[in-house]
Every structure is written in C-alpha cells, then in structure tokens.
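Posting this for the archive.
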Amino acid sequence: WCLKGCPATYIMAGSRKPRTTYLHVLCSMPAPPTRSIPQHINISHHLGFIPRWCLERNGHNMKKQFIFNRLIRKIAATILVIAACTAFTIPNSSANWYAGMYKPDFTYTGISAYIMTPSSFPTLSSGGESTWVSNYTSDGYWVQTGIRYYPGYAQFKAYVEHNLPSGYGIDEYGIHGLNVTIPYRVQFEPSTTTGYKWYAYINGTNMGGYALTQYANVQAASEIHVSGTQMGPFEYSSVSTRDSGTSWVSNNTPPFADSPYHVTIQGNYASYTTYGP
C-alpha cells in the first residue's frame, strides 16, 4: 500500500525532487495486514526515486528484493538464449557414422592404404559417403584423400580434402572405377623450398602439400553422412602408418564400426572391409 501511493504521487509531480513530507505521512499510516502491492503497478522505473525509509519500513527492503528478482529474470532469460543457440551450433555426434581404423596419439607423420571399391554402386539415401585416409592435428586441422560417392554421381570420384587455419577446401581428381584398387596416402614431408607440409598422394601421384604441424593422429575409414545409406563395401589392405621416423609399419590397431555398420578383419589389422548396414 505504501508503494502504491509513493510512486504514484511522485510521478504526478513530474520532478525528481522527493516529496518527503507527503511520503512520510503516507508511509506512517498503518498498513492493512492482508493487503499486498497490486500486480498492475509498474515500479521498475521509479524505485530509484523512492526514499529508502519508505522501502525499508518494518524491516523489509523491498527495493533490494525487486532488484534481486529482476536479476533472476535476466539470468533465466540468458540461460534460455544460450540453450537455444547451443541447440543450433553444437554438432550432432550421430550425424556421421564411421567404420575403420583410428590411432588417437598425436605422434604420427603418415598413413597409407590400398582401397578397393565394390563391384556395384551402393544405395544412397539423401546423403553420400566417402572412404579415405587422413591425418588430424591436435588443433583440429586435417588433410584427407580417398573416394567419394554422392547423389548425382555417375562414378566414384577420387578427391583431396583439407581443413586448414587458412580455410576449408576440396578437389576431385577423376574417376575411381568399380572393383578397382588404388593406393591413397597422406604424409608429412620437410622441404627446403616449400617448408614443412602434409602431402596427399593418389595412386602414387603427389596432389599437393598443406602447411600443418608435423605430428598428428591418423585414420583410415569409411564415412556415412545420412542414416540409411549403404556403406560400400570398401576393402582396405596394406594399411600402414609412419611415426616420427621414416619407416612404415603395418597397422596393429583393431578397426571399429559405428552401429549399424560393420567391419570384417581380413587376416590381420592391416586388411579389413567396411560395409553395412
């Protein structure tokens, strides 16, 4: 009842000069025990003009309570905005499905594999697929080369894809035929003229280098982008990795597959087939 009278009288005055006498008389009047501040009274723009003794009458600091409530509303609104933005910016971990080999340690300087395409084209849904070898640096950059097949393609296509500090790019380099085996490789190479780079090779041909840090983890896997797409089957053989030295070593890491896709080991971990569902 005090707030109903204090700001209303003060607003009508149209001045920031406190009407202390009137407020003192008004707030000295006994308040009805069950009466509360009407909800339609908007005091958010006028609390700074109300004398503290009026707000703190009977030990209740109503100004602080109002500010606290307004702060809570702002925090709640901020949380809702963050949640909404997160829902649109965080990638869905189930957006891609993988089957193949992955070495998580950032100690490698190369990955190589022979990849054989199926005897017929896989059935696609609304998305495509790829099968490749790739590095992946500790700061999230990579160079990848392999085969891709998307809606509208008449053939499998060989490609090189990269994600660098300078930007993203992808180039296609001709056809990889049905039931054909071609070697793909990415490896780190020092150069006195071009500096230290990771190079991509298709069938032994150097397709160009990309400036990245020397050590990375390495992968040789098939990738599906939309559920319901048939994976390959793609046959990997002679999967090899290179560490800080110059020697290539046959893969000794068990391959994996995200459900509903599969991987079948062909004798050892350096040879496997990815397929499914």
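The radius of gyration is 34 Å. Confidence is low (pLDDT under 50) at residues 1-29, 31-64, 80-94.
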